[in-house]
Amino acid sequence: MNNQSFYDRFLEFGSIYYEPIDLEKHHLACMQFSTHTKTMEQLFCFPCDVYIELISGLASIVIGSQPDPVGLQTFPIHHYLKIKSGVYFNIFPVSDEATYCLLSSENRYAKLTLPQPYTFQLQPIHFNVLEILDHYYSTEERAYCFNQAGHTYFELLHVHNGTLTVTLADTVCALSAGDLILCKPDSDHAKRLAKDSACNYLSISFDMDLSESQILFGHVFHCTNGLRDALNKIIEERTMHTPYAQTLMLCHLQEIITRLSLLCNELSEEHNLLSLNQNSQSDLLQQILAYMEEKVTEPITIEQICHKFFMSRTSLQALFKMYLHNSPKSYLLNIKLQKSKELIRESQYTISEIADMLGFSSIHYFSRLFKKYFELSPSEYAKEIAASETN
């Protein structure tokens, strides 16, 4: 997560700072805590601003505007944090143990007991690429048919250029440039190249522990940028005869399977969305758009919208793509910038106040986006409005 992304999302709950707070100058009391458990049962809530300074270890903060476990968000602690009054939070260690200080102008604070313990867990990995047994990059320039010998390993086929037809049992899959397919162990499959055609393709046979994701197999995927980068690295590294080439190839193949699993999750989300009837989809979208308009002058996030309407980020993106051919983030940014023009025309607020009101992290960030969208800066637009009113 880059600093700007962290700051934009964290802005709802507080801010960051870079130098330790002078306790005497700001009349603050210091409370020191150490934690070693990744399960928390309570949340802090201070009636005033509170500062968090990590002393040792690695840690993250679980935080929310309401004491609702479903709405809690997690941020890694890479800076000193200032938390707004009335916000609920707690700290858990990423390392074995973490020590931190809470600095506030008051010693009193509330501790809310959660209805059930909140446990920090990394997402489990359901697969592990064990070994690459065979790999080759083939250039074919004449018609041919090759019936793959049966084996008990997985095979990935990626068409780099041209077209290739792959037959899996009774299913015929046409792969174009940028496509790839995964074949299961013990699956009979044939590769065919049409007459007067040419094709470059990559084949990797490998062993893998896999507990689920049967949708991975027999489905033609078109490469995303991330997939394409990882595949190109494998193509480059397969010709290198260095001690680490095989290890790097295993890492890139693990990344490819991970990215394919994410694509499968998105396909599943889109399928669930499509299972709703059209009227339900349209009504849901209109409710979301109305909510965005209502909250346009607040630092609302995409995560808040998902929580409000009980849907995943992927489902929200699929809904916007289906009806608006746009992403939720772009749509929200657009209505904020349109609202900024309206507020500038009203001349009741400064440019800095408008940027803060609409939830932009800084006036410089707001000005840069405004100029990108409207080809003039907010101050230039204000001057243009003032000039038109005097004429």
Question: What report would you give on this structure?
Answer:
This protein has 391 residues and is an alpha+beta fold. 36% of the residues lie in helices and 31% in strands. The strands form 4 sheets. Strands 1-7-4-9-2 form a 5-stranded antiparallel β-sheet, with no helix packed on it. Mean pLDDT is 83; it is low at 1-5.
SSE pattern, N- to C-terminal: HEHEEEEEEEEEEEEEEEEEEHHHHHHHHH
The biggest sheet, with number of strands, parallel, antiparallel or mixed sense and barrel status, is: 5 strands, antiparallel
Count of DSSP H/I helices: 11
The percent range for strand residues is: 25-35%
Strand element count: 19
Low-confidence stretches: 1-5
For the biggest β-sheet, the strand order reads 1-7-4-9-2
Q: Averaged pLDDT, please?
A: 83
Question: What descriptive keywords fit this protein?
Answer:
single chain, 391 residues, alpha+beta, 5-stranded antiparallel β-sheet, 19 strands, 36% helix, disordered N terminus
Nutshell version of this structure?
With 391 residues, this protein is an alpha+beta fold. It has helices at residues 3-10, 23-26, 225-237, 245-274, 278-294, 302-308, 313-324, 328-346, 351-357, 363-374, 378-390; strands at residues 14-17, 29-35, 39-45, 50-56, 59-64, 73-76, 80-83, 88-93, 98-104, 110-119, 127-140, 144-147, 154-162, 164-168, 171-175, 179-183, 189-193, 199-210, 221-222. Helices cover 36% and strands 31% of the residues.
Spell out the blueprint of helices and strands:
Blueprint: H1 3-10, E1 14-17, H2 23-26, E2 29-35, E3 39-45, E4 50-56, E5 59-64, E6 73-76, E7 80-83, E8 88-93, E9 98-104, E10 110-119, E11 127-140, E12 144-147, E13 154-162, E14 164-168, E15 171-175, E16 179-183, E17 189-193, E18 199-210, E19 221-222, H3 225-237, H4 245-274, H5 278-294, H6 302-308, H7 313-324, H8 328-346, H9 351-357, H10 363-374, H11 378-390
Antiparallel strand pairs: 1-7, 2-9, 3-8, 3-10, 4-7, 4-9, 5-6, 5-8, 11-18, 12-17, 13-16, 13-18, 14-15, 14-17, 16-19
Helix pairs in contact: 3-4, 4-7
